[in-house]
Amino acid sequence: MTNALLLAPIFIPLGGAALGILLARNRTYQQAIGIVCSIGAWIGSIALLIGNLDGSIFTYNLGGWAPPYGIVLVADLLASLFAVMATTVMAAGMLYAVGCRDKSVSSPAFMPLFLCMAAGLNGVLYTGDIFTMFVFIELMVISSVILVAISDNRLGMEAAIKYLFISSMGTLFLLTGIAALYATFGTLNMADIARLLASGERPVLAQAAAVMLMCAFLLKSAVFPFHFWQPDFHTTAPTPVGAMLSSIIVKVGIYGLIRMITLMFTAEAALIGNVLVILGIIGIFFGSLGALRTYDAKRLLAYSTFGQVGFILVGIGWGSPAALAAALVYAVNHSFIKSSMLMITGVISSRTMTKTARLTELGGVGKTMPWVGGLYLVGGLALAGVPPLNGFISKVTLVQSGIEAQEWLTLGLVVAAGALTLLYITRTWQLIFLQDPDEALKLKPYGDSVLAPSLLIALCVTLGVFASPLISLALRAVEQMGDPTLYIRAVLGG
Amino acid sequence: MNTLFALATGIMFGMGIFQLLRRDLIKSAMGFYILFTSINFLFLAVGAYDGIIAPYVDANNQTSAQPSDPLVQALMLTAIVISFGSYALLLGLIAVSSRRFRTVDSDHVNQLKG
To answer: Is the distance from CB of A139 to CB of A119 less than 8 angstroms?
Structure first.
C-alpha cells in the first residue's frame, strides 16, 4: 500500500537541518526548529505504526520509480516499532539539548547535525534498498562524528578520529557485501534479493555477502570483536548526543541483523544465530565486568550498553518467535532506560565545576539533588531488571523464551550475568547519592534541565506497569517477519 | 579483463590496509582513501561484463560486446562523494588534533584510557 507519510520521519528532520543552517545566527529559532521537527517526525512514525497495526505494510516509491528499479521506502511492523523508539528518544534528546548548558550545544552546527543524525537513523530503518541503507548509515556516522568532535570534553576529538577510522571499516564491509550481492543477483532491493535467495540455489558469493553484512552490522552495534571504540566514543560525546549514541544508534546494527536473518538469509539463520549467541554471551560478561571496574559514571553506562546489546543478541540468536519478540521488547526498553540514565548522569556532572563524570569527583554530589537521585535509582533498577519497571519485563520475556527454547546453558549464563548489573548500579548510586560530600566541594547553582530524563523515566515506569501492549505488538511484528513473502509481496506487488 | 580488475582491486586493497596500519595519522588517512578506491574498483568490476564499453553510447550495436552496467557507476559516484566527504572530515579532525597534541603519531594521541 502506498503511503506518502513514510517521507515524514526522514525528510522533516532533513528539511529542518537545512533550515537550521540558514538560521545559524539565531539560536532560539534553531531550537524551535529542532523541537518542531523532532516532534513532527515522532508524530509521523507513530501514525505509521498505528496504520501498521492491522497488518498492512506501507511502501513509497521515491521519484515514482517502481521497485526493484527505484528506491523504495518500506514500513512494516518491525521498522515502525524501531522508528517509534528512535523518534521518541530523539525528541527527548532534543528537549535535553534545549535545556543543556554545554558550550557545544550552543554551537550553530549542533541542531542541524542532530537533525541529520535523526534523519539518517529513520532512513536506515525505513529504507527497503540496501545501498540507500549505506547512504543513510554514512549520514548518521558523519554527523555523529562531528557532534562528538565539537564536544566540551577535550578528548572528544581523539574519540571522533578513532571512531571515524573504525566505522569506515564497517562501511567497507558493508560496501563489499553490497558489491557481492549485486554481482550475484543484479539487484539492490532487499525484497528482490530475498525473493531470489528464497527461490534459486545459493551462489558462493551470497554467503560471503552475508558474512560481510554481518560484520558491518556487528561493528555498528559494537559487539565483541568490534567493540573497542564504543566506550570512548559514547563517553566523550556531549550528553544529549551520547544518550542517543548509546541507546538508539547502536540499535541500527540490531535492526540490520534482524532484517538479515528474517528476510534475506533465512536459510542461514540458525548458523548466524549460533554465532550471535556466543558473541552476545561474551558481550554480556565483558560489558558487565568492564562496568564494574570503570572510573567514570558515563563510561560505566557505555560499558553497560555492551552487556545489554549482548542480551538482545542472545534473544535474536535463539531465533524462536518468542525469543525474537523478547529481543524486540528488550531493544525498545533498553533504549528508553539507557538514554534516560545517560541524561541523568549528564545532569549530575553538569553541576560540577569541571563538568566531569569521574566517580572520584562525583562523590556526594547528588546529596543536594534528591529528585535526580530518585530518578537515577528508578532508572538503575530498571536497568538491573527489578519488578515493577520495564527492564524487568524485558528480562522476563527473554528468560521465558529461553526456557521455551530449552537453551539451558546460555540461559544460565544470561541469568547469572543479569545479577552483575545490579552490582554496578548500586555501587555508583551509593557513591554519588549516599556518600557525604567533601567539605571543599563546590557546585554550580544550575545544571541541565531534568525535564527530558523525567519524561523518559515516566515512560519506563509506564511500560513496566502496562507491559502487555508492547509485548503483543512485538509478537505481531515477529509473526509478520516470520513470513518474508508478505514483505516481498508488499514491495514488489503481485 | 576480469583478471586485471581482480589484480588492481587486490593490489589497491593491500596497499590501503598496509597504509592504514601506519602510525602516522595522515598516512593512515591516505590508506583509508585508497581502500575506498579499491572498493570502487570492485564495483566497476561488478558492472563491467565483457569489455569496457560505455552504456548508451553504442546505440547502433556496432560492436558485439555487451555494454557495461550503468547502475554501478551511479552507485560509485555516490560512494565516491561519501568517501571523499569522510576523508575531508578525517583530515580536518587530524589537523585540529595535531595542533592540540603537537604530533600526528597515533601512539602519542592516547589520552583516552580506561
So the answer is: yes
